[in-house]
Design goal:
Length: 201
């Protein structure tokens, strides 16, 4: 049984620590956020956490803790749920495979589609943002057992609007390497880098 240690957000299978999907994607993070100062990143992280907690509360049927900063994002999420009427089988679920673990924001159905959804509050997504969320949702899908799910990112904006981003379509239209090949290759790269670090000790 996988356990999440909240204090340092690490995943453990007994006494074995599994890397998180976020850690694996960190290989790409500098290219996405390398020019943004630390204080700005920390502020965005706190805001993102607050928005995730508020939307989770709403989906679980509880009042959401919302302030002036988070209200437009939460309103955008409420508009998304009104427009698409998702039926969630899992909300902030811990998922895992032999090589990694993570917490998927949502999985379930929209209409007759099986769906895996990641919620994003990135102000100005770029190409690396899209690459990362495509790989992220694909890695989650490998742990969940859906046959052929749709992979989506939901971008919530500070103006109170949202964009539902089709990961599979974007990847097909913009990338040469199939997603089914690229995602596992990134996992292999992560483990290779870790082996190099151990060799330095």
């Amino acid at each position: 049984m996988i356990q999440l240690h909240e204090e340092d957000h690490t995943y453990w299978d007994g006494d074995k620590q599994l890397p998180s999907v976020t850690q694996i994607l960190d290989i790409l993070s500098y290219q996405e956020f390398g020019n943004i100062d630390k204080a700005t990143l920390e502020y965005a992280s706190r805001r993102g956490t607050a928005i995730h907690e508020a939307t989770e509360a709403l989906d679980l049927g509880f009042p959401a803790d919302v302030d002036g900063e988070t209200e437009p994002y939460v309103r955008a999420y409420m508009d998304f749920t009104r427009d698409y009427k998702p039926s969630w089988h899992g909300i902030e679920d811990i998922v895992y495979c032999d090589e990694y673990a993570g917490t998927v924001d949502r999985h379930g159905q929209i209409g007759d589609m099986d769906v895996i959804l990641d919620i994003k509050t990135v102000g100005s997504p770029n190409r690396l943002t899209y690459v990362k969320v495509c790989i992220q949702t694909y890695l989650y899908s490998m742990c969940l057992g859906y046959g052929n799910p749709k992979l989506f990112a939901l971008f919530l904006r500070k103006d109170g609007t949202y964009r539902l981003f089709d990961c599979l379509k974007w990847w097909h239209d913009n990338m040469n390497t199939p997603l089914w090949a690229a995602a596992p290759e990134l996992v292999k790269t992560y483990y290779f880098i870790q082996s190099l670090k151990k060799g330095d000790k």
